[in-house]
Amino acid sequence: MPVGRAEIEALEAAHRPLKADRDQAKAALDRVHAAQRPPATIAPEFVREFGMLMRTNSAAGSVPFRKAWPQSIVDSVKFDTDSA
Predict the structure, then answer these.
(1) Higher-confidence position of 34 and 17
(2) Domain of life here (predicted)?
(3) Which of 24, 43, 51, 54 is deepest in the core (most CB within 10 A)?
């Protein structure tokens, strides 16, 4: 039984939204895969070196550093009549 041109066009029309959905889902999956990265690994010697640098700079570093460092880690300080 031969298939007519109208049936083929109807099938193609029904297939187009499915292809668009598939392409959209594939693009979303590709974005998820691109966003996934292995966790960063920081060598212990870098952590140790950073700690020593911060300790040295906070104790004897420049005044602008010693002012900026606490401001970078503390959002706000609230005072009450008997506590801070």
Answers:
(1) 17
(2) Bacteria
(3) 54
List, in sequence order, every beta strand (DSSP E) within 6-83: none
Tokens linked to 42: 């920081």
Q: How far apart are CA 84 and CA 81, in angstroms?
A: 8
Strand residue runs (E) in the chain: none
Mean pLDDT across the chain, nearest whole number? 87
Tell me the backbone φ, ψ of residue 83, rounded to 5 degrees.
-155, 165
Q: Report in angstroms the alpha-carbon separations of 65 from 43, 49, 53, 73.
A: 25, 18, 12, 13
Q: What is the pTM of this model?
A: 0.42
CA distances (Å), 55 to each of 46, 58, 60, 63, in order? 14, 5, 8, 14
Dihedral angle sign, alpha carbons of residues 55, 59, 61, 67: positive
Token duo for residue 62: 């420049």
Place of tokens 């966003």: 35
